[in-house]
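To the wet lab folks,

You asked to see what we're planning to order before we commit. Fair enough. Below is the target structure as tokens, and below that is the sequence we designed to fit it. If anything looks off to you, flag it before the synthesis order goes out.
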């Protein structure tokens, strides 16, 4: 296997309180932002206006998006290139359908003065994620976390390890959500998918280190737990960094060059990937040690 760095002997357990403090600051910043600003929920959660127009002359999606930006509107755009038509969605209540539609039409008129366009459809679209669906999704997420605890507890014969893995997972998801709130990025179903991907990615990397800890427990049963944790993390550090740097390279390219449509998704994955790497090394395994130490 390719080795990114040589043998290391970093005292991760000795630095655990510093790691905990950094995480606490990041979580507090996200919580403060969500308390003050809230989350910028997209059309999938709020509903809004739908306006479909067809242009006489060809225009690109980028030009349509630029026209909406100049008009000061945050919109979701769907193109029908075979008909040179575009469907524009914008957040708002049902009572504001006509008001929002007129703003969209005015934005097109200002940006495309020589290009006539026809309104084909004007309507209100309800939220894709209703209250009932949101409750079911939350229940499914909680059930999956419980399943992870049971799985890790069964595999490693210790429920504390499962709880530590889930806390590290929640740590990553919450910090990613906090970053979205701080930057006021819109949250839609694609972002929900990104947060769930972060959760799966985080626990997978944590289990790799837990597996090495279990192996070392069998080989060195009398080794102090702190030394065993440090040894296990250092032994898997090259593999962890190599895997995560590969993921980071991909999401960084998507974030920089992927365009407006997937920019929020790429941003969420970028933050989550960094947090996932950090929490695997600096949160999950130190939590196992901390709880084991308190239990004695």
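Sequence we intend to order:
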């Amino acid at each position: 296997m390719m080795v990114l760095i040589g043998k290391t002997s970093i005292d991760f357990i000795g630095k655990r309180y510093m790691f905990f403090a950094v995480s606490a600051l990041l979580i507090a910043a996200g919580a403060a932002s969500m308390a003050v600003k809230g989350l910028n929920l997209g059309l999938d959660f709020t509903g809004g206006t739908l306006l479909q127009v067809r242009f006489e002359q060809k225009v690109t999606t980028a030009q349509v998006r630029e026209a909406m930006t100049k008009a000061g509107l945050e919109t979701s755009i769907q193109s029908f290139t075979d008909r040179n038509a575009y469907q524009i969605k914008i957040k708002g209540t049902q009572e504001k359908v006509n008001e929002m539609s007129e703003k969209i039409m005015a934005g097109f008129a200002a940006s495309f003065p020589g290009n006539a366009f026809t309104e084909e459809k004007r309507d209100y679209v309800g939220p894709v994620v209703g209250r009932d669906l949101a409750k079911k999704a939350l229940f499914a997420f909680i059930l999956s976390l419980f399943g992870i605890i049971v799985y890790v507890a069964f595999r490693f014969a210790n429920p504390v390890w499962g709880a530590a893995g889930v806390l590290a997972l929640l740590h990553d998801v919450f910090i990613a959500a906090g970053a979205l709130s701080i930057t006021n990025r819109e949250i839609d179903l694609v972002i929900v998918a990104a947060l769930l991907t972060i959760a799966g990615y985080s626990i997978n990397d944590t289990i790799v280190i837990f597996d090495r800890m279990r192996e070392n427990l069998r080989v060195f049963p009398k080794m102090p737990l702190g030394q065993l944790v440090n040894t296990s993390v250092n032994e898997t550090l090259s593999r962890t960094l190599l895997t995560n740097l590969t993921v980071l390279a991909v999401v960084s390219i998507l974030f920089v060059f992927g365009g407006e449509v997937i920019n929020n998704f790429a941003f969420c994955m970028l933050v989550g990937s960094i947090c996932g790497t950090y929490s695997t090394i600096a949160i999950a395994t130190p939590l196992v040690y901390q709880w084991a130490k308190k239990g004695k």
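Structural context that might help your review: The chain has a mean pLDDT of 86. Strands lie at 48-55, 75-80, 85-91, 117-125.

Thanks,
Computational group
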